[in-house]
Write a structure and sequence with these properties.
The chain has a single domain, classed as TIM Barrel, CATH 3.20.20. 40% of the residues lie in helices and 12% in strands. Strands 3-2-1-9-8-7-6 form a seven-stranded parallel sheet. A two-stranded parallel sheet has the order 4-5. The longest helix has 18 residues. The mean pLDDT is 92.
Length: 244
């Protein structure tokens, strides 16, 4: 299991997160209204998220085009970049006029275009209910040769058992390819279904913890790094069991 530490575009972290650690940056946070601001990246292994959740919450849609996003990827050359996607959490559904079906269709359309233009793009699977993810997968896999996948609309889920149940359900129809989970809670990784399903996750909870506890960034990151290491070495059952 690999973890990418989420960082905010407007801040530094050069002395906070060791430079041999992988990090994730949101393109939405880089957008300044007319283009993407430059940001010094101290880390050799970093990935770019399109910032779909930010885009829908803040602007109602992406403020930048697919070609502008591709230009950013070409200029900055992350390890990989998530395709532009439309989150389907109920909380975000209030801020957009698009139905879940329309968001799934748009997510697949973006993935098809971006994957055709860049080998660094990892397509995103969207939905909220299991049947919606399966619908997205059928459409996506008919248009894109998917060798790696990122799972959206997970970070707002509060029940770790629900996340584990979702992972089990997804394993029933997805091929055995690497899957990245956006914002998966550390607690969920204690479930063997989640640990077996995800090959990587990202989190910016460490930064929220720093603000809430009035800690220095380096202190908060060290706490979360220790927490992840403890979870990574925890014993787990060898066989998966469907949760009821």
């Amino acid at each position: 299991m690999k973890i990418y530490w989420g960082i905010t575009a407007s801040r530094g972290y050069g002395r906070t997160i060791p430079h041999d650690e992988p990090v994730m940056l949101s393109a939405g946070g880089l957008w300044n209204g007319s283009g993407f601001r430059n940001k010094t990246m101290y880390w050799g292994d970093w990935v770019l998220d399109c910032g779909g959740f930010i885009a829908l919450n803040k602007w109602g849609d992406f403020p930048f085009t697919t070609d502008q996003y591709l230009e950013l990827i070409e200029q900055r050359k992350p390890s990989w970049a998530a395709s532009m996607d439309y989150p389907c959490e109920p909380s975000i559904s209030k801020g957009t006029k698009l139905t879940v079906n329309e968001r799934i269709a748009a997510t697949v359309e973006y993935a098809e275009y971006l994957c055709r233009k860049s080998d660094l793009i990892v397509p995103v699977l969207q939905g909220y209910e299991l049947a919606e993810y399966e619908q997205c997968w059928r459409l996506l896999s008919s248009k894109v040769d998917v060798k790696r996948l990122a799972l959206g609309s997970v970070c707002q889920r509060q029940s770790t058992k629900d996340i584990a149940t979702l992972c089990w359900g997804l394993m029933q129809f997805l091929p055995p390819i690497p899957v990245h989970g956006f914002g998966v809670k550390f607690r969920a990784l204690r479930w063997p279904e989640c640990w077996a399903f995800f090959s990587s996750i990202d989190t910016d909870s460490w930064e929220y913890h720093a603000r809430r506890k009035h800690l220095k960034d380096a202190e908060a990151w060290a706490i979360y790094d220790d927490m992840f290491k403890e979870i990574a070495t925890a014993p787990r059952q060898l066989l998966l069991a469907k949760q009821t």
